[in-house]
Write a structure and sequence with these properties.
The active site is at 88 (acyl-thioester intermediate), 329 (proton acceptor), 359 (proton acceptor). The protein has 373 residues and is α/β, with parallel strands linked by helices. Helices cover 36% and strands 18% of the residues.
Length: 373
């Protein structure tokens, strides 16, 4: 059985302390869920489930925000919701779970999305109260340290792939250039609800300014300029079965061609998209050259540059409208945001296949391949 993407929408991404800072996360997600229902013209009462990715589910993001957001949007009470945490890949995994439910025949219409308000709930809030989350006896016996540090991981990737600071900064500068061009061309306009533009791209950035920033670790190469930006946002997609397409008169925009997740070294953490992409291509029989557009999350510049070297992908097809270094990385929302952008970019460019992947806490990566219809 097939799973189709029939709707995709997102908020503009706001910088920390910016446009969404005062918006309750349930209202932020609720707004995009309501917009999705309005755009697809689907009776929200026909939805079987709502699956929302969110990281740091404490405070205003606690209590199953998928359910809270749906209800906050005024949508039907009989529709359930569940919240997913696969760290940065949470809402990409939400899409996977939605597609798997449809493919299995146990659901016909599933909403998949993500939300994160990092202005209200600071990064790693869920990990802070009780000390290191990786100090279990079995973990310590295996990995010898509870110090899992994403900045150390970013520096280690740069060192292993011989990526110098200037190369990282060139990549980051290009991300801003591409995002600013997309904003100027109104490229994102059709995929955003609420009438606002993405807030994070830095119009005043330059290679000179980047070169003057301190590194995030002594002796490292990673700076704030070559890391993704803390941000707020939400995104959602509607996944439908063949039966739902017929019953509701829907237009399939893309077919889920492949979905998978793979694990890698949890201490290095950020390199998992490399083996995950290789696995996905093996499973599908596609080559890297068959893919027309890629969205590879820019958690750090080195993540994408190392992935490019190992996969041989054409850089001109990767993150063509910029990525999280410029556009921001609202953790639980980014997976769905990337999927919304990937779908719209395939439609703009006329491409057939799009591949999305992102590094995730615990040394994991999801890969989704969609086929535009």
């Amino acid at each position: 059985m097939e799973a189709y993407l029939v709707g995709a929408v997102r908020t503009a991404v706001g910088r920390r302390g910016g446009m969404h800072a005062a918006t309750h996360p349930a209202d932020l997600a609720g707004g995009v869920l309501k917009a999705l229902m309005e755009r697809t013209r689907v009776d929200p009462g026909a939805v079987d489930d709502v699956i929302v990715g969110c990281v740091d589910t404490v405070g205003p993001q606690s209590g199953d925000i998928a359910r809270t957001a749906w209800l906050a949007a005024g949508l039907p009470e009989h529709v359930p919701g569940v919240t997913v945490d696969r760290q940065c890949g949470s809402s990409q995994q939400a899409v996977h779970f939605a597609a798997q439910a449809v493919m299995s025949g146990t659901a016909d219409l599933v909403v998949a999305g993500g939300v994160q308000n990092m202005s209200q709930v600071p990064i790693s809030s869920a990990m802070a109260p009780a000390g290191p989350y990786v100090n279990a006896e079995g973990w310590m016996n295996r990995y010898k340290s509870a110090n899992v540090d994403q900045f150390a991981s970013a520096d280690e990737i740069a060192a292993r792939w011989s990526l110098g600071r200037e190369e990282l900064e060139r990549y980051a500068f290009l991300s801003h250039e591409k995002s600013l061009k997309a904003l100027a061309n109104r490229t994102f306009g059709v995929e955003i609800c609420g009438g606002r533009d993405d807030e994070c791209p830095r119009r005043d950035t330059s290679m000179e300014k980047m070169s003057g920033l301190p590194t995030l670790r002594d002796g490292g190469t990673t700076t704030a300029a070559t890391a993704s930006q803390i941000a707020d946002g939400a995104a959602a997609l509607l996944v439908a079965s063949e039966q739902a397409v017929r019953d509701h008169g829907l237009r399939p925009r893309a077919r889920i061609h492949h979905l998978s997740a793979r694990g890698d070294d949890p201490v290095l953490m950020l390199a998992a998209p490399i083996p995950a992409t290789a696995h996905a291509l093996r499973r599908t029989g596609l080559t890297i050259g068959d893919i027309d557009r890629f969205e590879v999350n820019e958690a750090f510049a080195g993540v994408v540059l190392a992935w490019l070297r190992e996969t041989g992908a054409d850089p001109a097809r990767v993150n063509v409208n910029g990525g999280a270094i410029a556009l921001g990385h609202p953790l639980g929302a980014t997976g769905a945001r990337l999927m919304v952008t990937l779908l719209h970019e395939l439609e703009r460019s006329g491409g057939r296949y799009g591949l999305q992947t992102m590094c995730e806490g615990g040394g994991q990566a999801n890969v989704t391949i969609i086929e535009r219809l």
